[in-house]
């Protein structure tokens, strides 16, 4: 047999769960009945976490060092399949929602990974876009590039904001942003260095999490948003230099709160309506829609070598593992429909409570490199993505 196991996960063969509804994300939402309904609060739809894999091209170092070797992965975007080489003869095959090879443009990546989420957020849902992968595989390239020198290079953060600005009316609506770093279980405000220990507050009744200490900046144009990202990046760099660490060790979290006033008639009436509606002609008061978009550039997923570390380095190694491994544990628990999901084990999982197993529309991009020398890390990244594909959220507009 040319190909080894299909859908192997750890040791056992697995059912290709994703085949069941691999195209569900786009087609299910936004459902037109939700747009028409005035009682959207009690309408919820299932929405599986959607997972794309992005492969970065070989870099200069790999061009030389790996010159005599094949890439460790082969992407088959039209089949939505990825082959991970096991050895010279065998490979394992995995299915994903989207495969983005080294030629995929930033525009395409935005359209596939983030645009459906941004559209939902504009309708009042919560949404999450997250990048997971080994350091150097393109998480920040995918999410955070500003595109100063070349606008086609801009990443998901800037493109999301452009899309939102184009679709809201700043007379009645608002877009406000917070930008944070989570490092060693401490949340730092990237927009105000004095706020270096922000706490998470959970609403007793709704269970919603918020960060009341974080700076919130209202955005009215793209340029001020790009400046805000630049300030945040500089602050991230400064904080990391002070702490003598690298940004690859921390998680960067951008939150965009969207408040929209949707006119009652717009909300009730849809051109595709299959029932004759007279509501479009009657006055309905405006409805406030509040959506939240969270974009997370996670710390590098590579295993931190604890053996050689001492003191601060060891603490850091443990702490990095704490947040990311807590995320992995939550995703495993949700993928297996386990009764207990250990959300409270880390700040990252508390912050992302709504993103996995919650009401958010969630899109994950896992980034990988081609080098056969990093096959083991690439494999573990792919398995993380496979498990995330099994997580079902219940999308719901909160009012
Ligand atoms: P990470 O944030 O995962 O550590 P980066 O986004 O910083 O990785 O990317 C590492 C390097 O690879 C950077 O120099 C970046 O410009 C380059 N790179 C990443 N993805 C791509 C891509 N798809 N195409 C071209 N270069 C890329
Ligand atoms: Mg990075």
Automatic annotation (TrEMBL):
Chain positions covered by the region annotation Disordered: 1-43, 265-284
Polar residues bias: start-end ranges: 15-26, 34-43
UniProt: ATP binding residues: 133-140
Localization annotation: Cytoplasm, Cytoskeleton
Residue stretches making up the Kinesin motor domain: 48-391
Quaternary structure note: Interacts (via C-terminus) with NEK5.
Family: Belongs to the TRAFAC class myosin-kinesin ATPase superfamily. Kinesin family. Ungrouped subfamily.
Protein name (database record): Kinesin-like protein
Organism: Lithospermum erythrorhizon (Purple gromwell)
Shown residues within the full chain: 1 to 399 of 875
């Amino acid at each position: 047999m040319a190909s080894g196991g299909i859908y192997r996960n750890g040791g056992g063969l697995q059912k290709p769960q994703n085949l069941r509804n691999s195209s569900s994300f786009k087609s299910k939402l936004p459902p037109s009945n939700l747009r028409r309904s005035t009682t959207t609060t009690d309408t919820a739809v299932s929405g599986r976490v959607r997972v794309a894999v992005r492969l970065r091209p070989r870099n200069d170092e790999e061009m030389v060092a790996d010159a005599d070797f094949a890439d460790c992965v082969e992407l088959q975007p039209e089949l939505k399949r990825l082959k991970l080489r096991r050895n010279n003869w065998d490979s394992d095959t995995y299915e994903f929602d989207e495969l983005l090879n080294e030629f995929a443009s930033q525009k395409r990546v935005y359209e596939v990974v983030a645009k459906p989420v941004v559209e939902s957020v504009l309708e009042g849902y919560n949404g999450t876009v997250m990048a997971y992968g080994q350091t150097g595989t393109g998480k920040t390239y995918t999410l955070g590039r500003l595109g100063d020198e070349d606008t086609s290079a801009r990443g998901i953060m800037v493109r999301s904001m452009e899309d939102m600005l184009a679709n809201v009316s700043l007379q009645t609506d608002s877009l406000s942003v917070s930008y944070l770093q989570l490092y060693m279980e401490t949340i730092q405000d990237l927009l105000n260095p004095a706020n270096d220990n922000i706490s998470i507050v959970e609403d007793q009744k709704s269970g919603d999490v918020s960060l009341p200490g974080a700076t919130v900046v209202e955005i009215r144009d793209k340029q001020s948003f790009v400046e805000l990202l630049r300030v945040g990046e500089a602050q991230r760099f400064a904080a990391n230099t002070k702490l003598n660490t690298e940004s690859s060790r921390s998680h960067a979290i951008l939150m965009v709160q969207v408040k929209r006033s949707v006119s009652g008639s717009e909300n009730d009436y849809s051109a595709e309506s299959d029932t004759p509606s007279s509501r479009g002609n009657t006055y309905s008061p405006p409805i406030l829609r509040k959506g939240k978009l969270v974009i997370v550039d996670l710390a590098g997923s590579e295993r931190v070598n604890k053996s050689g570390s001492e003191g601060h380095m060891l603490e850091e190694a443990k702490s990095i593992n704490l947040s990311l491994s807590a995320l992995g544990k939550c995703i495993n628990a949700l993928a297996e429909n386990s009764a207990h999901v250990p959300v409270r084990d880390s700040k990252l999982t508390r912050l992302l409570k709504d993103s996995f197993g919650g009401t958010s529309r969630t899109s994950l991009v896992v980034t990988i490199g081609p080098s056969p020398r990093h096959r083991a890390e690439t494999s573990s990244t792919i398995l993380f993505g496979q498990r995330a594909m099994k997580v079902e959220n219940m999308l719901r507009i909160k009012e």
